[in-house]
Design goal:
Number of strands: 10
Strand order of the largest sheet: 1-10-9-6-2-3-5
Number of helices: 8
Shape: globular
Low-confidence stretches: none
Radius of gyration: 17 Å
CATH class: Alpha Beta
CATH architecture: 3-Layer(aba) Sandwich
Mean pLDDT: 95
Strand content: 15-25%
Structural class: alpha/beta
Order of helices and strands: EHEHEEHEHEEHEHEHEH
Largest sheet: 7 strands, parallel
């Protein structure tokens, strides 16, 4: 696993955005897996700036979701589809037709999960999947104990997750859905390049367990150790519990600039 330690979130965003830009220069119709939350926002802003400056073309690029709430009506402002349209698709100037996501409003949710897995395969697979990480080591909504071979499926949100997400629903937990669709760990591992971005001291323990601990279902993100091309980008705070931090800094510093992530 490649670990890149950066001084701050903005630098991490720039590095990941440049990795996406390099991918799009090589493969203009690349499928980028995007995630919601505050952590990836510097990535999206940096990539939009590159597009605006003419450094990379995205007219053929495609994006896809990592997860989605179940039961919100189409167009709900807090559905993850709506969030990603606002934060990624529109700023990059992409067509909504370039966006793939699961149908959280479907009558048959298990069938919708299978259909989304099939759609990702039919699209040629995800070229680069951006991931965040929870303080308990979850990726997507694959909470501790999730099968490392799991596919896209429905999951029940924990009460704490619903409490945490209530701020996006006017502080009313009753508006927060109880269920989500999430790419499974097995689905995530099929992407050609996985990039996990983490910032802040609160993520330090989860990052250390992911990178240096054993591969175990109790830390779902540790499955990234099994992937042939996984990159972890962390700021100094999130890297504070990595025993091998000096090694990671030296390794990345010696890497040829043309090689990228």
């Amino acid at each position: 696993m490649e670990v890149v330690i950066v001084p701050d979130a903005a630098t991490g965003g720039e590095i990941v955005a440049e990795a996406m830009a390099q991918l799009l220069r090589r493969k203009p119709d690349a499928l980028l897996g995007v995630a919601t939350g505050s952590t990836p926002l510097p990535v999206y802003r940096a990539l939009a700036a590159k597009v605006g400056a003419g450094e990379v073309q995205v007219d053929r690029a495609r994006v896809c979701q990592l997860d989605e709430y179940v039961g919100l009506p189409a167009g709900h402002p807090e559905s993850y589809r709506s969030v990603l349209l606002r934060e990624v698709v529109e700023p990059l100037g992409l067509s909504p037709d370039a966006f793939l996501g699961p149908d959280g409003a479907a009558q048959d949710i298990p069938a919708a999960c299978q259909a989304y897995d099939a759609a990702l395969s039919a699209a040629g697979g995800v070229d680069l999947q951006l991931l965040g990480i929870g303080t308990d080591g979850h990726i997507g909504f694959n909470e501790p104990g999730s099968s490392l071979a799991s596919r896209t499926r429905i999951k029940t949100l924990t009460e704490q997750t619903r409490v945490d997400n209530a701020r996006f629903f006017d502080g009313d937990i009753e508006q927060v859905p109880h269920h989500v669709i999430t790419q499974g760990i097995g689905t995530i591992l099929e992407a050609r390049h996985l990039v996990l971005l983490a910032t802040g001291e609160g993520k330090a323990e989860a990052v250390a367990q992911t990178v240096e601990g054993p591969v175990a279902a109790i830390v779902p993100a540790s499955a990234l150790q099994l992937h042939p091309h996984a990159t972890v980008v962390v700021d100094e705070a999130a890297a504070s519990e990595l025993k091998l931090a000096p090694y990671f800094r030296a390794t990345y510093a010696a890497k040829p600039s043309w090689q990228g992530l």
